[in-house]
Design brief:
173 residues, alpha+beta, Alpha-Beta Plaits, seven-stranded mixed beta sheet, two-stranded antiparallel sheet, 3 helices, 9 strands, 22% helix, elongated
Length: 173
């Protein structure tokens, strides 16, 4: 049976590999998963935060039943699209965000994500979300919303029968 945490881990790993392969941010210790507590402040202000915002179904789940002499196995595959927000901070934030936008629909990005069972579909345009920090300093921040495709795979043992009988009863009215 597939575990939702494992699916999220695969999405995070795929996004990190895309960032490492196509932007100047190559240090994974500067890539954080969103909604985490106790993220150490990066003094150089050069990092990114990756957040899975939501998922939605793309179509009806596909169900496959495999029957052998001994048992029945049921495989369910549910295709989903998820929205991932990537926030880049620091001097190179704009360049990195625009690079993700440019690469999101390329075969190269698809091949990087392939081993994790996810596929980049498309991204929105990079957004400038520069703000002011607690120290009253500008913090450069560019955000990209990246849409990813993946399947939730569930496999379980089904039940069945190996014999059936039909009884015909004639009813006269």
């Amino acid at each position: 049976m597939s575990d939702p945490v494992l699916v999220q881990d695969s999405i995070f790993k795929a996004i990190k590999d895309v960032i490492k392969n196509f932007t100047s941010l190559t240090d994974e210790t500067k890539m954080f998963s969103g909604f985490s507590n106790r993220i150490p402040e990066d003094k150089a202000n050069d990092y990114c935060v990756i957040s899975i915002l939501n998922s939605s179904r793309v179509s009806t789940p596909r169900v496959e039943r495999v029957t052998t002499e001994e048992d029945i196995t049921v495989n369910v595959s549910d295709p989903l699209r998820c929205l991932v927000q990537i926030d880049f901070y620091g001097k190179y934030a704009q360049n990195r965000a625009e690079t993700i936008v440019a690469m999101s629909r390329t075969p190269e990005a698809v091949s990087v994500c392939e081993e994790y069972g996810v596929t980049p579909l498309y991204s929105d345009e990079a957004k400038n979300l520069t703000g002011i920090s607690g120290e009253s300093q500008y913090v450069l921040r560019y955000s990209v919303d990246l849409n990813m495709f993946y399947n939730v795979e569930v496999t379980f043992e089904g039940s069945g029968f190996d014999e059936a009988s039909i009884t015909k009863t004639e009813v006269i009215q």
